[in-house]
Amino acid sequence: MCTDNCAKCLGVALLSLSTVAFLCNILLFFPGGKEIGNIDNLSQEVLLFGGILGSGFLMLFPANMFLDLKYNDCCGCCGTKSCGRRFAMFSSIIYAAIGFLGAGYSFIISFISIRKGPKCLMDNNKWGYPFHNGDYLTDKSLWSKCLEPENVISWNLNLFSILLVVAVIQIVLCAIQVVNGLLGTVCINCCKGYRRI
After folding, report:
1. Domain limits for position 56
2. Hey, which residues does 148 pair with through a beta bridge?
């Protein structure tokens, strides 16, 4: 498979994953599937937009670049088509690094949120974080510390877990494109049916 065809497949996958991340982050604004009256009662990590900014918006740059890579020859610089194609493949490495940073941001936000637990109404009628160091993950009896919103623990845990997995997959795909971009930069003429101008 040519390096640009591989990049196109990676672009499609990244676009799909960024859509999933975007939707998950939107759903986090409705803890337990219900609208919350005060935005201050949302977990801080929801407002950091890990899925919208990191795995969502920032991932659109590399995804779109990878999709168009097959047709990008940078106007055939230096009088040869391979020169422009080499530059395009090299620039895909930079875009992959942007995607890596975005997915890394989403991963860190999701990991912190899973460990910290959701913000909820506690039995002292105050909103806060009743869990410490992920203790609620191993002891489900602690979930009773959260009175409202209903099902907020499983809601946040599931959505942030999805964001965490999406971020890991995006990091792997961006790393694959770094290798693919290096191969394309070094041996752009290796693709079947490709010829110099």
Report:
1. 3-190
2. 121
Average pLDDT across each block of 10 residues of the chain; the chain has 197 residues. List them in order: 78 96 96 89 94 95 87 53 72 94 97 95 92 91 93 96 98 95 76 45
What's the rounded Cα separation, in Å, for the pair 128 and 62? 38
Q: Is residue 127 part of a domain?
A: yes
- pTM for this prediction: 0.87
Look at phi and psi of residue 32 and say left if phi exceeds 0, alpha if psi is from -120 to 50, else beta: left
Task: Report CA-CA distances (Å) from 89 to 14, 60, 102.
Answer: 17, 17, 20
Task: Give the number of domains in the chain.
Answer: 1
Q: Where are the beta strands (DSSP E) in the chain?
A: 120-121, 127-128
